[in-house]
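Friendly challenge for the regulars: who can give me the structure tokens for this chain first? No prize, just bragging rights.
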Amino acid sequence: MKIRDIGEIGLIKRISRKAKYGKSVVKGIGDDTAVLKWTKDKYLLYTCDMLVEDVHFKLPQATPYRIGHKALARNLSDIAAMGGKPKYALVSIALDPGKNVSFADGIYKGMSGLAKKFNLDIVGGDISRSKKLVIDVSVIGEVEKNRLTLRSGARPGDVIFITGLIGGSLKGKHLDFTPRLAEARRLVENFRISSMIDVSDGLLLDLRRVLDASSAGARIYENLIPLSAQARSFESGVSEGEDFELLFTMDKKEAGKFLRTEFAKMESGATLIGEVMNKSYGYKLIDKNGKQRKISTKGYLHF
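First reply, four minutes later:
Bragging rights claimed.
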């Protein structure tokens, strides 16, 4: 049996079944970050992401600055999805020694600009040689215990929201996006958010992950989904991935409060796109003609 035969999701499930945790682990494999016990009032958040040439970006279309920015921003998006704040980062990079020093400078400039914006310290890492550029970033963050958001909290009757616009990310947004840390903090500090995830692999696939973790179903509406003008089509827009927007849920009473306040007018915007249903309902789309159909989950997977 080959890895491609079980796919990315199957491989993760296979690994997670063998994982064993100590008492300090609150949440391991299966969410945007690991959650660890830390202080009386806060949890520690720990996440890592790789960026691989010709998989996550292509040269020379992606400049060194944009590559560095994306490498760190992907991790910060994960911290945002948990309702947290980033604190420290480690950066490991494998690159071709034949590249100009200015190439490496550009990568770290892209990271340092983002680190300064979000008050993050890059405290170390590792360097190796490789024909293709590979960057692995690990970020440690923190979140108050009463503000932690997981994928597993969505309940029937909850309302589903998403920030920003969906689709067309491969035309440039995937290299230049701003992680929704400010929006996430505004949400968890002022509202009871039942679940949250960052949309990295496509809206349909990432919402499915929330539903699976929450043992729930959902109904979403095609005419409510905020599609970017750069999206090639509705289908590509909800499945291409690399949007790095926040998908979140809250109960109807809290949603009413959210929509009645200035908090709904976040810089990125936030759009109501559907509702959480009982698991028996399944996962369905109401199309522009009002017809209901089952959603065939599509999204970006490495294999």
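The longest strand covers residues 42-52. Residues 64-81 form the longest helix (18 residues). Your move, everyone else.
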